[in-house]
Design brief:
single chain, about 400 residues, alpha+beta, Aminopeptidase, 2 domains, 14-stranded mixed sheet, two-stranded antiparallel ribbon, 12 helices, 18 strands, globular
Length: about 400
């Protein structure tokens, strides 16, 4: 085993061997199982503005160091060069479904979006790339029987995403919602929300402050941020458990990963609404370039819930993000009314799933049917409500 220094004090052990590279569409593609030697090229591609937070070096390197192995992922980085110049990096991983190896995006379970990193000129020509052949060849070389690249935005940075198009892609359970914040935020806000709506929001805030003694805060001290996040994790687990679901934030390695992200107080933001020492709502966000991404939010029930604390916190966050210089606000996947109120762009998310090794046909069929069923249920209000009621009934009985 060789120890590979990622950046600063980040270290991780990886096997020395990696799958052999290959030629594809005029590129030399090298496959490696560690981040060794990639930081400079990675940050150069990242600076081009064609990737999201979830493909940024800081996010990915922390995931690899803290959570990848514990999540059952074996990282693989497909590095494409043309005439010796970096063209793209695909951060993928081998995972397992009932013993069968899948090729997925790295950190797919905790990333809003799955994408690669591309040089600007590569992204311009990627629409004509034989994408299916590329990911199939990678899967074969790492021993994966199925490709399943999930949560792929159909367009990004003003361009179509070739990995999210074609007959091997399918609609997922969610679209995502992205809002451009205009330079004149006050004018944009007045255009989006009528005077009556704003008056109602202010009235709720006054009642929340008076009846619940609530105040908005942005914890900055390490211990305060950690306490706020731990409350978030516990409250999320409690609420999901009540509906018969498990929290994706429950595993220790996931909590450790988010605490590591929060250590960078320039890029990670915690917003809370609290009454004394009692928290009412908490939101976690992260910044990448001039975009802020809402990672997740939770608010408690009780008497204060009737004053819409989650809604009030969101309006506070938007103003705070704009004042901090953000010009894109990414609400993330999930069709909720509080997102639609801001009239964001709706970006479909698609999954690319195809069979590489016929011996895994049964697993492939189960996976594709599962993706289709989940999308059908989530996008149908009546069906999703029925499933939620069934989960709650089963959790009680």
């Amino acid at each position: 085993m060789a120890t590979v220094t990622l950046t600063g004090d980040l270290e991780v052990d990886h096997a020395a061997r990696a799958p052999a590279g290959f030629e594809w569409a005029g590129h030399q593609v090298a496959l490696q199982t560690s981040l060794a030697g990639l930081e400079a090229d990675w940050r150069a591609l990242e600076a081009g503005g064609t990737v999201s937070l979830f493909q940024g070096w800081d996010y990915v390197s922390k995931w690899v160091r803290i959570a990848a192995t514990a999540s059952g992922e074996e990282p693989v980085f497909a590095v494409g060069r043309r005439d010796g110049v970096i063209s793209f990096i695909l951060p993928v991983a081998v995972t397992r479904l009932a013993g069968v190896k899948l090729l997925c995006w790295l950190g797919q379970s905790h990333s809003n979006y799955g994408m690669g990193l591309f040089a600007d000129e590569a992204f311009e020509t990627a629409s004509v790339w034989p994408v299916e052949g590329l990911v199939t060849e990678i899967a074969r070389r790492v021993g994966a029987s199925i490709v399943h690249l999930d949560r792929q935005p159909t367009r990004w940075a003003g361009r179509d995403n070739p990995f999210a198009t074609g007959s091997r892609t399918s609609v997922t359970a969610n679209d995502t919602f992205v809002l451009a914040l205009e330079e004149d935020y006050d004018t944009q806000y007045r255009r989006l929300f009528s005077g009556r709506t704003v008056s109602g929001i202010k009235r709720k805030q006054r009642k929340l402050e008076k009846e619940c003694g609530a105040d908005f805060a942005e914890p900055e001290e390490t211990e305060a941020r950690r306490a706020s996040m731990d409350w978030f994790f516990d409250e999320k687990r409690r609420q999901l458990s009540a509906t018969g679901r498990s929290s994706p934030f429950e595993p220790k390695h996931v909590r450790d990963f988010y605490h590591a992200l929060a250590a960078d107080d320039r890029a990670f933001v915690v917003d809370e609404l609290a009454s004394g020492t009692d928290r009412i709502a908490v939101a976690m966000s992260a910044r990448h370039g001039r975009a802020e991404y809402l990672l997740n939010t939770v608010h408690a029930g009780g008497e204060c819930a009737k004053y819409s604390p989650g809604l009030l916190l969101q309006h506070r966050i938007m103003a705070r993000a704009h004042a901090a210089g953000m010009r894109v606000y990414d609400f993330g996947p999930g069709a909720f009314s509080y997102k639609r109120d801001w009239e964001p762009d709706v970006v479909p998310l698609r999954a690319r799933t195809h069979l590489v090794n016929p011996v895994a046909l049964a697993h492939y069929l189960a996976l594709t049917l599962g993706v289709a069923a989940k999308a059908a249920i989530k996008r149908n209000e009546r069906l999703s409500g029925l499933v939620d009621r069934l989960r709650m009934a089963m959790s009680r009985g």
